[in-house]
Write a structure and sequence with these properties.
The complex is a heterodimer of chains A (423) and B (237). With 423 residues, chain A is mainly beta. Chain A has helices at 120-125, 153-157, 170-177, 272-277, 386-393, and strands spanning 8-9, 69-70, 91-92, 105-110, 116-119, 129-136, 160-169, 185-190, 197-201, 225-230, 233-234, 244-246, 259-265, 280-281, 287-289, 297-302, 313-322, 328-334, 342-343, 345-347, 356-364, 369-377, 406-409, 415-420. In chain A, strands 1, 16, 17, 20 and 21 form a 5-stranded mixed β-sheet that branches. In chain A, strands 5-4-13-8-9 form a 5-stranded mixed β-sheet. In chain A, strands 6, 7, 10, 11 and 12 form a 5-stranded antiparallel β-sheet that branches. In chain A, a hairpin with an 8-residue loop joins strand 20 and strand 21. The chains are: A mainly beta (423), B mainly alpha (237). The interface between A and B is large, with 151 and 120 residues. Strand 15 of chain A pairs parallel with strand 4 (192-194) of chain B, so a sheet runs across the interface.
């Protein structure tokens, strides 16, 4: 464990002598006197039936249909940094499709010495790369921009997942086709109905007006890969089977699913995804493009609004932190609305552009508490407050809402989603 | 601040030609990035440009790669009424929760943004779309929604032309092709700007970080519908 993590102790914590006593003789559970299922009764294992509430969910009013929509990962129920594949959030622009890997190809062309085409089998022959990274939709938290709205952490932070990704590094493929050093952008295109394409900057990239793209964004492609596996098994259709582009740290929309084409160019496309969709309408009336990185963010997933605390005494504050710029350096926790903070324990591993779990012992005194977490990444970037975010982005921004999340613990033990507007 | 529920994640359509050419590249990607890439051979196949052509369907903001062919407003009206209006509305006003084609006039849109009132739900090709050629790109690759990629090039040019007319960007006699689309100046083009990096600057304060009382806002009953699926309250994680 990293440094830090003194317990956040409130006074008047419960003592052992306050505990009730169990006197009834213990009874066996029914499972003690029966035979269970044999092997391969469930050839592909499933969670316990008692965990049936741990599922992806969507928000009906958010989109006109479920084909061009999003579902949310139930982070309130997860205990680590890895999202089980069946719980990875979904985001479709034209629905999930079943692509036959034996007929699928990837073409790489544009500003290259030798355009090439690969089968999925070809890609699996190439030197592989494996790394654990988060993948986050820039709309994560979007429903909270204008005010408090959602009663579950699943809906405030669930447009995000974290997996072990395996594939071929983009730089390996770039070397094979001989990318022209004058290329400053590339884009992927999918083979689903949206044929989704996004422009990805490399060193020297400029926008359509000749303005340079910030240097902080022009090296992310070096971590990029063409993936065929997540968490050790083939990608799921929901996540781009048989292959997808994956660019760690960038908004998830840039990691094109069902990838069929990569093109290297010297200017951005400015696709509808870049001109109409993933843009920010700022309080000065400007429409800002190319806010690409998911900056440092964190959230407490226990306690959170999906729980009701049983009474005063010992709890553990647990949460997740991440940054699209690199590793998490610190996570601090406050139980008094952000006046005073305590450094939390970081649970290994602490990886580049990856979720980091944090914990902090918490003695709840039964009083009202405002709990929150604040991440700092290795670049020194500190997660902003909602007030700070709204000052620069206003109320019409939708995307990249990485502000400090506040949960209010009521005296009853109820946990509420709240916002602090003035500090 | 309006506490209306956030508008829906839009599937967008929309478009403005900016007659700016990219300056030549004084920089390039760092060849050092490839230094550690393994040398591999004997995998994959070479492919000719002619073989790639059917997949090379990306039409850039400045008109690069736009195909031969043309479309008219009148031909586009028939396509729109048959394939588009059920979602985008007879007049581009949007329907059934699908995106508007025509939103607030750009000056009104800009004023809404400055006033902090809902500008998100009023997006249309007449305010948030920078270049007309990428409207053609979007329609040709992604529309109609229920049968994406099925319009011919001429049909896509025509649908593009009709929605540009619907948004009062071109007149009814306008002909859309690879020459004309890049010359259109979209109404919202003047509002576009590029992100310059981190714009929040919090500090890592640990003790007595502010004076006074935090203004805690709880959920207002008027905000949104939260009957979004059963999430049971539990005791422990």
């Amino acid at each position: 464990m990293a440094a830090g993590g003194a317990a956040i102790a409130a006074t008047n914590a419960a003592n052992a002598e306050d505990l009730k006593t169990w006197t009834e003789p213990l009874k066996d559970e029914p499972t003690r006197h029966m035979l269970g299922r044999g092997v391969v009764a469930v050839p592909y294992g499933l969670p316990s039936k008692y965990e049936s509430g741990v599922v992806r969910r969507n928000v009906g009013w958010l989109t006109a249909d479920t084909i061009a929509s999003i579902s949310f990962t139930p982070w309130q129920d997860l205990h680590g940094i890895i999202t089980p594949n069946g719980l990875h959030f979904e985001r479709y622009h034209a629905g999930a499709v079943d692509v036959d890997p034996s007929k699928h190809h990837l073409v790489i062309h544009g500003m290259v010495k030798q355009p090439m085409i690969f089968t999925v089998e070809d890609l699996k022959r190439l030197p592989s790369h494996t790394a654990i990274h988060f993948l986050e939709c820039p709309a994560n938290g979007a429903m909270e921009w204008r005010g408090v709205q959602m009663d579950s952490m699943q809906f405030t932070h669930g447009m995000m997942s974290c997996s072990e990704w395996t594939g071929v590094k983009l730089t390996t493929l770039m070397e094979m086709v001989g990318v022209d050093p004058k290329a400053t952008w590339f884009y992927g295109e999918g083979t689903d109905g949206s044929a989704l394409q996004r422009s990805v900057p490399m060193e020297g990239a400029k926008d359509q007006h000749g303005n340079p793209i910030p240097e902080a964004y022009t090296s992310h492609y070096r971590d990029a890969m063409v993936c065929y596996a997540m968490n050790g098994e083939a990608l799921r259709p929901e996540n781009g089977y048989p292959i997808r582009l994956f660019i760690p740290g960038f908004e998830a929309n840039m990691s094109t699913k069902y990838l069929r084409r990569l093109m290297f160019v010297d200017k951005p496309l400015v696709t509808y995804q870049e001109t109409r969709h993933y843009i920010e309408v700022l309080p000065n009336g400007e429409i800002r493009q190319y806010n690409l990185v998911n900056e440092a963010n964190s959230v407490i997933n226990y306690p959170c609004p999906d729980y009701k605390l049983k009474g005063k005494g010992t709890y553990e504050i647990r949460g997740i932190a991440w940054s699209g710029y690199g590793k998490i350096k610190h996570v601090d926790v406050s139980i008094d609305g952000g006046k005073n903070w305590t450094q939390a324990n970081l649970v290994e591993p602490v990886l580049n552009k990856c979720l980091t779990k944090f914990t902090l012992p918490f003695e709840w005194d039964g009083e009202e508490r405002l709990i929150m977490s604040r991440a700092t990444d290795e670049t020194g970037f500190v997660q902003p407050t909602l007030k700070q975010l709204r000052e620069v982005r206003g109320y019409n921004s939708i995307y990249h809402k990485n502000s400090i999340q506040v949960w209010k613990i009521e005296k009853t033990g109820e946990v509420k989603n709240v916002q602090i507007e003035n500090v | 601040m309006s506490k209306s529920k956030m508008s829906k994640l839009n599937l967008g359509l929309a478009a403005a030609a900016i007659a700016l050419s990219l300056s030549s590249n004084a920089f390039a990607f760092d060849a050092a990035a490839l230094k550690d890439a393994p040398k591999v051979g004997g995998v994959g196949m070479k492919i000719t440009d002619a073989a790639i052509k059917p997949w090379n369907i990306s039409y850039f903001y400045d008109g690069t790669n736009l195909p031969d062919g043309k479309g008219t407003v009148s031909a586009g009206e028939k396509i729109y009424n048959k394939d588009c209006a059920m979602c985008h509305g007879d007049f581009g006003e949007g329907a059934h929760g699908y995106p508007k084609m025509v939103g607030d006039p750009v000056d009104q849109f800009e004023a809404s943004a400055k006033a902090g009132v809902d500008a998100v739900g009023n997006r249309g090709i007449n305010n948030t779309w920078g270049n007309a050629p990428t409207l053609m790109d979007m329609i040709h690759r992604h529309m109609p929604f229920y049968a994406p990629g099925t319009l011919t090039v001429d049909e896509s040019y025509s649908a593009t032309c009709y929605v540009l007319n619907l948004a009062n960007i071109v007149d009814e006699n306008f002909v859309c092709d690879k020459e004309s689309l890049p010359k259109i100046v979209m109404p919202g083009a003047k509002l576009y700007t590029t992100n310059l990096g981190s714009d929040t600057h919090n500090i890592r304060c640990m003790k007595d970080c502010y004076k006074g009382t935090p203004a805690v806002v709880e959920k207002a009953a008027s905000i949104g519908d939260v009957s979004v699926g059963k999430v049971e309250k539990r005791d422990s994680h």
